[in-house]
Specification:
- The structure is a homodimer.
- By secondary structure, chain A is an alpha+beta fold.
- Chain A has a single domain (4-159), classed as Gcn5-related N-acetyltransferase (GNAT) (Aminopeptidase).
- The first copy, chain A, contains 4 helices and 7 strands.
- At the A-B interface, helix 2, strand 6 and strand 7 of A face helix 2, strand 6 and strand 7 of B.
Chain lengths: 164, 164
Amino acid sequence: MDDLLFRTAVKPSDPDAVRRIVESTGFFYPYEVDVAVELVDAHLAEGEASGYHFVFAELGGETVGYGCVGPIACTQSSFDFFWIAVHSRCRGRGVGRHLVEACEARMRQLGASRVYVETSGREQYEPTRRFYLACGYQEVAVFPDYYAPGDAKVVYLKVLGPAI
Amino acid sequence: MDDLLFRTAVKPSDPDAVRRIVESTGFFYPYEVDVAVELVDAHLAEGEASGYHFVFAELGGETVGYGCVGPIACTQSSFDFFWIAVHSRCRGRGVGRHLVEACEARMRQLGASRVYVETSGREQYEPTRRFYLACGYQEVAVFPDYYAPGDAKVVYLKVLGPAI
């Protein structure tokens, strides 16, 4: 993975890249894909004032994954890890792990002390939940039936450092 | 309290009313007051498409309290109880309890099955937390240091009915 590069600048081609990446995973409902793309559009329109910050992973010059993070309103230094996705073609190669680290570095730059990630309790998301645990995130809450009957919300936390 | 009335239509005078009510409580930081008013502005500009729904309590023709609720994106029928506030002049008279019930009735109309409320774990919010418990809400999660060091987020849930 010597050729894995990260960038935080958002390019006009990124909404398409994000749609391609998110769709490739087969994990998301169409309206969720639209939400993912809207956040990129929001950053292109408003910049960092949008509240959405991105890290893109490039492999051999191609955008193959991305993370989207942002400060949680009305908190001193808590951040949400809104999205992370790696193109299905590149899975199992450690891109996700490196991308999480790059996103955490970006959040530290932005003043984050605590990072929260939410995901589904559905069977399909078991690899996702194991992934967060492997990245050092702790499960801190479960909300049964949150998304829908039988579909819980599970919340993970990683403390990046003391609040400054 | 025979003369307590509720309305869901939002009037052009409501942003001012909400500012007055929220400020009177002495509970909120100035930027939080601004957020409260922005949600009313959003409803006036975009209507129900804003995602923010209101119930206003009127006593003797004056708006003395309000609640703001809305569906949680990407959930089937979970709602957030964003705000509830009663003018300090009218506290201790049960307006809050009636307002919660009116907001729950409104959420049922809108298809809600589960209502989540978040508040602070700070000492100052102890009456707030007791209020939610008294209204039939259950504490379902605590996130220490969420808002700031020593300032936890506490989440309450009330199940309004089965998801349809």
